[in-house]
Amino acid sequence: MKKILACLLIGTLSQSVWALEAADQQRLGDIQQNWAHIQYELPEGQRAEAFEKLATQAAAFKQERQSLAEAWIWSGIVNSSWAGAKGGLGALGKVKEAKGDLEKALALDPKALQGSAYTSLGALYDRVPGWPLGFGDSDKAEQLLKQALQLNPNGIDSLYFWGDHLYRQKRYSEARAALQKALQAAPRPGRETADAGRRKEIDALLVDVNKQLN
């Protein structure tokens, strides 16, 4: 589970966030920045404990602002990240909780944060084991990731996870095109750490893709 979920981490900021009230915007930004710090700057052995603390913060935001899809999205992201850092079969409970959070976000507002609930949920379906251990389903993942691309065709995360999906399906030429496009994504203000970390992941995946094509 640890390897399966290690890359299941999404940091998204879209224009829709500016429609939030100032206090909600601040809480969301704090969660996003803390997430990026934990994932990309902390040593691997310290991440599980740090994500556990951040999950408490995200859960409070979700419970206090239950009508905000953005709060549910980030609760789902943090829970899946915590599961990835924790690893083992015990992480499946957190993964299922993350799935529920993301499904709730889609019910509230599928366009929130440029459709990042679709991206996050698609990534879960791509990486979680299938039945009987989990709910993994590559066909469902493709459906969700395509919906994410419809809402955010030029986003670094939507393109990265689409490229990763294509790689898993051995569609290497398509994967390379998606990942190269992801590297051209516009910077996200306030998300510099997340952008830098994601680009490193894209570069690493491109190395594997190119090995398959050469």
Write the layout of secondary structure elements.
Layout: H1 2-5, H2 22-41, H3 44-64, H4 69-86, H5 92-108, H6 116-127, H7 138-151, H8 156-168, H9 172-182, H10 192-213
Helix pairs in contact: 2-3, 2-4, 3-4, 4-5, 4-6, 5-6, 6-7, 6-8, 7-8, 8-9, 8-10, 9-10
Q: Report the sheet-strand fraction.
A: under 5%
Output the structural class.
Answer: mainly alpha
**Low-confidence spans: pLDDT under 50, at least 5 residues?**
9-18
Residues in helices, as a percent range: over 70%
How far is the first residue's CA from the last residue's CA?
30 Å
Number-wise, the strands total 0
Number of helices: 10
Largest sheet descriptor: none
Rough outline = globular
Mean pLDDT: 91
State the order of secondary-structure elements, H for helix, E for strand. Answer: HHHHHHHHHH
Radius of gyration: 16 Å
Can you describe this structure?
The protein has 214 residues and is mostly helical. 71% of the residues lie in helices and 0% in strands. It is built from ten helices and no strands. α5 packs antiparallel against α6 and α8 runs parallel beside α10. About 5% of the residues have low confidence.
Briefly say what this structure is.
This protein is mainly alpha-helical.
Name a few traits of the molecule.
mainly alpha, 10 helices, globular
